[in-house]
């Protein structure tokens, strides 16, 4: 690239950046943060919510301050009339805080992104592999891709996985020998201690459970690995069976 062309591009970029800073574009801020319109005109009264207050500023300047902050910064509150910004570290839920009305707009920091082919839910990313493998190989494949065989901690997460990944009966994915369930591997197992199921992600014991009634887990000695059925119920099964599997990883 010629020096003259570089200078032109440099000045175009500089003019664009200065224009954005002068106009305080909410659209530009939305690239980095998510606007929460339901929170408009509310201001948390709890002083512990705030890292700092910045005057004579713009939304984009304030968002950069939040993204670069060494302290915890979950979002910004911006008052257009006063050109004032507050960096916040708390989650401004209506159930937990009192509010003072005012012309404030909330921009909330996004919790991260997922790799191509993964689906985001809350603060995690999920990947559904339809090819199928044994439980051990499925575990290794998830780990090789920066995750782990999925742990399921809540009823809501369990329902989301079913609605997102587990289709109605599919003869390509489901063996006719297991018509009542159609399993997909997840990360629970009792390989270390028979009858005590833990998640492979952190070796924690199961909190939320959703066993297939009334017989699961049947705790047979060769059924050490946990699967989820297409209806959302769980079962313990021999780990060498070949089924599709679900990986999970923190959003990045």
From TrEMBL:
Annotated coiled-coil segments of the chain: none
Protein's organism: Crassostrea virginica
Annotated signal sequence range: 1-24
Keywords: Disulfide bond, Signal
Name of the protein this chain belongs to: Alpha-N-acetylgalactosamine-specific lectin-like
Lineage, top ranks: Eukaryota, Metazoa, Spiralia, Lophotrochozoa, Mollusca
Chain ranges of the C-type lectin domain: 121-248
Gene3D superfamilies, alphabetized: Mannose-Binding Protein A, subunit A (3.10.100.10)
Pfam families xrefs: Lectin_C (PF00059)
Keyword field contains Disulfide bond: yes
């Amino acid at each position: 690239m010629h020096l003259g062309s570089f200078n032109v591009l440099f000045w175009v970029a500089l003019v664009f950046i200065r224009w954005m800073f002068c106009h305080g574009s909410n659209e530009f801020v939305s690239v980095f943060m998510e606007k929460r319109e339901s929170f408009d005109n509310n201001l948390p009264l709890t002083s512990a919510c705030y890292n700092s207050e910045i005057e004579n500023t713009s939304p984009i300047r304030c968002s950069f301050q939040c993204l670069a902050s060494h302290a915890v910064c979950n979002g910004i509150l911006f008052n257009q009339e006063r050109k004032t910004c507050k960096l916040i570290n708390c989650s401004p839920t209506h159930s937990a805080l009192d509010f003072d009305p005012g012309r404030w707009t909330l921009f909330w920091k996004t919790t991260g992104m997922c790799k191509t082919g993964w689906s985001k839910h809350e603060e995690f990313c999920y990947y559904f592999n339809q090819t199928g493998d044994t439980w051990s190989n499925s575990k290794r494949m998830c780990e090789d891709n920066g995750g782990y065989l999925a742990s399921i901690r809540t009823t809501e997460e369990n329902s989301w996985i079913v609605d997102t990944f587990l289709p109605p009966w599919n003869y390509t994915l489901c063996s006719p020998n297991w018509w009542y369930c159609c399993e997909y591997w997840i990360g629970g197992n009792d390989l270390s201690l028979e009858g005590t199921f833990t998640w492979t992600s952190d070796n924690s014991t199961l909190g939320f459970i959703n066993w297939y009634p009334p017989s699961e887990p049947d705790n047979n000695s060769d059924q050490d690995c946990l699967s989820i059925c297409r209806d959302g119920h769980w079962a313990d099964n021999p780990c060498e069976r070949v089924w599709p599997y679900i990986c999970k990883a923190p959003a990045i």
